[in-house]
Amino acid sequence: MVAAALFLPWPVWLWRRENPALEGLPVAVHRGGKVAALSPLARKLGLREGMALEAARARVESLQLLPYPPRAEEAWKDLLAELHRLTPWVEALGPGVALLRLTPLEARLLAQGYRARVGVAPWREVALLAAWSAPEGEARAVEEAEAFLDRLPLRFLQGVGLTPEGLEKLRLLGLKRVGELRRWRPSQVAAYLREGRQLLPYLFGPWRKEVARFREEERAEAEVLLDPPAEASEGLFRHLARLLARRLAGRAAQRVAVVALAEGLALRGEHLAKEPLREEEGLYLALVAAFRRSGAWGMPLEGVRGEALGLLRPARQEGLFQRQGEGLKALLAHHPGLFLRVEVVDPDALAPEWGFRYHPWEVVNAALPGTGAGLLRGGTAPVGGLQGKEEGGAPPGPLAGGGAVVAPRGRPRPLSAGGAGRAPS
């Protein structure tokens, strides 16, 4: 079965998880001087996203105004890693919305443990609608999708794209249930509602059963145990950074976390780097910054674990040619026929294929020669390749037999029209 879990509004849910005393209070999360997210109770009291803070505070006296969590994105990744312990199939649709493969009993335990709204159905689209219709902390299981959609109130379509304006347009026509809207043709829904095409998969299908497997974030860890316990020191984090640098093995970390074990507690701090971390010095500074955020400063530590998260392998290009001719030699080893040398036998031949022949290109510790006079010894420039007698290539014509033609200084000799490409077969 497909389970859809809603941890929404995500910043409000995150604040409630860290501070359970906020349960049952009107909560508004603000960012940039505006309300960014609201708890269900605050919405019932008339608050809306985008309101100014002064207006929201004046309307609801007991409103709890909280800043947007600074590490909301990292906390969502951590929650996905927690859900991965329940099932290997975890697919994130956005901050606070995830699809999983769970049984109805497991979905019920998930909803109760995380205070989330969970829907369970054979199809992911139906499971999402069931989750939007479920009360907070409960799971709603759907077996008959057609009957469920016929009874579902239209307002729950707002969770999958229906706008308040679209809901009002449907209510003006007397529609109250999703089943009444499903009696329309898909073309009618798309024409009447601006967001109609977005709603078509939920109303008419095709419904899907697939849930992607969770892709674990690559990480490297290093741990130092202290016996007897001691306070943090520069040498401790220098040693931890040295161990992490070895574990990276050429990779780079985007974030660094520190887990400090002190007085029976596991205190965690995290630091988001401004640039990928590879060197020991950068890792040391990031570890210290993450440790300061853990709240374990000044406590006797029993152990410290450093984590390098978001690993990647930086791409770099030292240069196309490390030495003259080396890059071209490697290229010709993979593609022998990529470059050919043209030997002009007789530019005035009656047939073009009689006037030239091809030879394989050879690199003798040099890159492509220059074409200007004076770049080569004697002031001459070869036509089509390096100087020297070559064997092989295309079959010679009846006038073949000469060596590579060398143009005199200042008077380059043009190739014939047939010498611009590969010899005709």
UniProtKB/TrEMBL annotation:
UmuC domain segment(s): 17-69
Signal peptide boundaries: none
SUPFAM superfamilies assigned: DNA/RNA polymerases
Ranges annotated as biased composition (Low complexity): 405-415
Residues covered by region (Disordered): 379-425
PROSITE patterns: UMUC (PS50173)
Name of the protein described by the UniProt record: UmuC domain-containing protein
